[in-house]
Automatic annotation (TrEMBL), chain A:
Subcellular location field: Nucleus
Protein name stated in the entry: DNA-directed RNA polymerase III subunit RPC6
Origin species: Dipteronia sinensis
Keyword terms of this UniProt record: DNA-directed RNA polymerase, Nucleus, Transcription
Pfam families: RNA_pol_Rpc34
Highest taxon above the source species: Eukaryota
Family affiliation: Belongs to the eukaryotic RPC34/RPC39 RNA polymerase subunit family.
GO biological process: transcription by RNA polymerase III
Entry GO terms, CC: cytoplasm; nucleoplasm; RNA polymerase III complex
From TrEMBL, chain B:
RNA polymerase III Rpc82 C -terminal domain sequence ranges: 165-372
All copies of domain DNA-directed RNA polymerase III subunit RPC3 winged-helix, residue ranges: 380-445
A Gene Ontology biological process term: DNA-templated transcription
Source organism of the structure: Dipteronia sinensis
UniProt KW Translocase keyword: no
Record keywords, A-Z: DNA-directed RNA polymerase, Nucleus, Transcription
Identification of the protein by name: DNA-directed RNA polymerase III subunit RPC3
Record's subunit section: Component of the RNA polymerase III (Pol III) complex consisting of 17 subunits.
Transmembrane domains' residue ranges: none
Keyword Ligase: no
Molecular-function annotations in GO: single-stranded DNA binding
Cellular localisation: Nucleus
Domain of life: Eukaryota
Protein family membership: Belongs to the eukaryotic RPC3/POLR3C RNA polymerase subunit family.
């Protein structure tokens, strides 16, 4: 047993760990890609603060563990064994960088999608995915899931819309019934959604509407939103 | 136990501000006294005259006169309820009065209704209809007198001619015979209702629905014109398609309230106008969502199925074959150059989400779905304006999914920062847009999840109430602006020069914007309330 360990990990720093360090290291490793918060370690191991802090530092310098960002609580010290990558729950997923949504990246991907959809008039998922790949803009190809996620968000923003092919006209060569995407506005500019009648008048967006009465302090007669609206 | 008719006064979508608005309309059109009676009925539900007297503290004759005006203008309907007498006494009938919220609110829509008719009929029809709007109810004789008084030289008005116009409008269902003045509501059996299959469970009828069902004559009578050449004989101009059951009810009606032509009274049929506006809203919505082709197809389908529709708020239309749709499409100007292939393409377009549903090679319009999407669009724009783009995306996700979703998942799909997402969700929840559920899992470390979904029914009702509130506000602001400038308005037009002229121009602009906003808002109210 001891021989075996020696052979495999002869030079591994694991062998030079103190008892406390070993306990903590095993705990952290057991959490795999979820890692663990330092406060929870103290609770689970019942070790005093000073020892935990000292041991964690030592484990870090030995490159056995690393500190990672937990997007849910950025202030907390969260640790993970060096060989794991933070899970999606911790990092926020593919669209997150350093615990924040990578807005610049997302914007670029969306822009590229719109560009291809505009060019193709109506595009299938595969069409968009191929075009993105061929463009060579991204260092790594986006996953199928990533493209799906982006398209879905764009549908929610009413930037593009989903529709089914009817096999003719612009849908020529696309099998009938296949889901396609099309830009809502010609040219792919982000369209302001159609604003309904209620949302187009001051009362429709007024935070005070529940307090507004004909003869009250807040009233349509004295309403400043109205005065501004009716300024000509 | 004395009164066996179960009276439910709740009309589900009539909200606080809805009532306030209706009262405002009545005050505006008929003054304070009448509106007092009407408000009492709107707030308390159907009442007898003695109860009305008690609550309003008006005199008998005042109440009687107010009710007569309200009935004349179709804002109140009387009905009788049978009450079992005490021991040894015969049952007796008690008359109650019911305010008709819908009809009151329709009073603000006369110009919209006129516009519909003006697209189909000429000036004489419009004049007759205008008379009905103005007076509520008219007999043929009264219509004739009215036309006579406006007679132009060289164009004598005859009774026959007026009747012909009336028949046109009745055939098109824009005008109908008035309902029975005081239908009797049969007492309900208190025995438990018959067991029904789960599919048949219907919402219990409101008192308004029950009364109107009892009062409105069957279609054969409702849309018929009685020939005035009486000579002791009654000659009806009525559709020959009346069923035996309808005939019986017809004859029964003829023998009492509708005995002679002199007492046959007509009024505008609001239901038909609402139906037309509902169709129009559907077509407009499809045009905006898809394209002109799809709108042309939808409108042709509506033309073809219109006569088969019995309810105003039908969930879907009758079904049509591809060839019958095509036949209808090429009748229209916009559809004349449509090929069959083009039609098929448009129908596929209309198929997702199913605005037109196909089964067994026949197509039917899913009104409910179209209306639902239109309502949703209005809601979404409110969320966008009030809470911003991220909330808009979240709301759209949740309303499309229509089920509970977990915070994390929502953040992922909508690309909203994970730390921001709960804040937005919480805000929407606090303002009653969302419903929230906590899910506690004992086993895992992260034990608590928050689940969210759109609180549709309550939210829709709440927004409708706010829309009524906003309509009132628009009207009040306009009244205020006019009042501010009343001195100016008193001046003759040629005196309004210089600075006065500028004020006049400003006032006109304000009037225009407030009035047009009101009309558009009313379209949205109809979308949520009437369609
Ligand atoms: S009148 Fe003014 S204060 Fe009142 S609800 Fe409308 S916008 Fe708000």
């Amino acid at each position: 047993m001891s021989q075996k360990r020696k052979r495999s990990d002869a030079k591994s720093p694991v062998n030079s760990l103190t008892d406390h360090e070993r306990i903590l290291y095993n705990l952290i490793r057991s959490k795999q890609d979820m890692g663990i918060w330092s406060r929870d370690m103290k609770q689970e191991t019942n070790l005093p603060d000073t020892i935990v802090n000292k041991s964690l530092k030592s484990l870090q310098t030995k490159n056995l563990i690393k500190e990672v960002v937990n997007i849910h609580s950025k202030g907390r010290k969260h640790f993970m064994a060096a060989e794991f990558e933070p899970s999606k729950e911790l990092s926020g997923g593919a669209w997150y960088a350093d615990g924040k949504l990578d807005m610049d990246f997302i914007k670029i991907v969306r822009k590229q999608c719109v560009k291809h959809i505009v060019r193709l008039k109506v595009a299938t998922f595969e069409g968009i995915s191929d075009a993105l790949k061929r463009s060579g803009i991204f260092k790594e190809d986006l996953t199928k899931q990533q493209i799906e996620e982006i398209l879905r968000a764009m549908v929610l923003d009413k930037e593009i819309m989903e529709l089914k092919s009817n096999g003719s006209g612009v849908f020529n060569n696309i099998p009938v019934g296949k889901v396609c995407y099309k830009c809502v506005k010609e040219g792919g500019s982000v369209s302001e959604p159609r604003i309904g009648a209620f949302a187009s008048i001051p009362c429709g967006v007024c935070p005070q509407i529940s307090l507004c009465t004909p003869d009250g302090i807040i009233s349509p007669k004295t309403c400043v939103y109205y005065t501004k609206w009716l300024e000509f | 136990m004395r009164n066996k008719v179960v009276i439910k006064t709740q009309i589900s979508l009539v909200t606080q501000y809805g009532i306030e608005y209706a009262v405002h309309v009545i005050t505006d059109h008929f003054g304070n006294l009448i509106s007092k009676v009407c408000e009492c009925l709107l707030r308390r539900g159907p009442l007898t005259r003695s109860n009305l007297k008690r609550y309003t503290e008006l005199s008998d004759s005042q109440i009687k006169n107010c009710l007569l005006v309200l009935i004349q203008h179709n804002c109140v309907q009387a009905f009788a309820v049978e009450q079992t007498g005490g021991f040894g006494e015969a049952p007796r009938f008690v008359t109650q009065y019911l305010a008709l919220f819908n009809n009151i609110v329709h009073r603000m829509r006369f110009s919209k209704f006129m516009k519909i008719v003006s697209q189909e009929f000429d000036g004489e029809c419009l004049d007759l209809l205008e008379g009905l709007f103005e007076h509520g109810r008219l007999t043929l004789k009264q219509m004739f007198d009215r036309a006579k008084s406006a007679e132009k030289e060289g164009k004598p008005v005859t009774l026959d001619y007026v009747q012909e116009i009336l028949l046109k409008l009745v055939t098109a269902r824009y005008v109908e015979r008035c309902p029975a003045p005081e239908p009797v509501l049969a007492p309900k059996d208190e025995a438990p209702a018959k067991k029904r299959g789960p599919k048949e469970i219907e919402e219990p009828k409101t008192i308004e629905q029950e009364v109107l069902e009892a009062a409105v004559p069957v279609d054969g009578i409702r849309f018929s014109v009685l020939d005035p050449d009486v000579d002791g004989e009654k000659k009806d101009i009525k559709p020959s398609s009346m069923t035996a059951r309808e005939k019986r009810k017809y004859d029964a009606l003829e023998s009492d309230e509708f005995g002679t032509t002199a007492t046959v009274v007509y009024r505008a049929n609001f239901e038909e106008f609402v139906r037309c506006l509902r169709y129009k809203a559907c077509i407009d919505n499809v045009r905006a969502r898809l394209d002109d082709g799809a709108a042309t197809v939808l409108s042709a389908m509506l033309d073809a199925t219109r006569n088969e529709e019995t309810e105003v708020r039908a969930k879907r239309s009758a079904s049509l074959s591809l060839s019958s749709i095509y036949e209808e499409v090429i009748k229209t100007e916009a559809g004349r150059n449509m090929t069959l292939e083009h039609l098929r393409a448009s129908l596929t377009e209309l198929g997702t989400p199913p605005l037109v549903k196909v089964s067994d090679d026949s197509y039917s319009i899913e009104f409910e779905k179209i209306i639902e999407l239109a309502q949703l669009e209005e809601m979404e724009s409110i969320v966008l304006k009030r809470y911003g783009q991220d909330a808009y995306r979240i709301f759209r996700l949740l309303s499309r999914e229509g089920r509970l979703m977990e915070t994390e998942k929502i953040a992922d799909v909508t690309f909203v920062e994970k730390k921001e997402t709960p804040k937005i969700l919480y805000k929407l929840w606090k303002d009653d847009y969302l419903h929230m559920e906590k899910l506690v899992l004992a086993a895992a470390r992260q034990t608590q999840f928050m689940l969210w979904k759109v609180q549709k029914q309550n939210l829709w009702k709440h927004i409708l109430d706010e829309m009524f509130h906003a309509t009132l506000n628009l009207r009040q602001r306009l009244a205020y602006e006019l009042d501010q400038e009343k001195e100016l308005l008193k001046l003759p037009a040629d005196k309004r020069t210089g600075a006065l002229n500028n004020r006049n121009i400003r006032l006109n602009k304000i009037r225009k914007i407030l009035q047009s906003s009101q009309m558009k808002l009313d379209d949205s109210i109809m979308l949520f309330y009437d369609f």
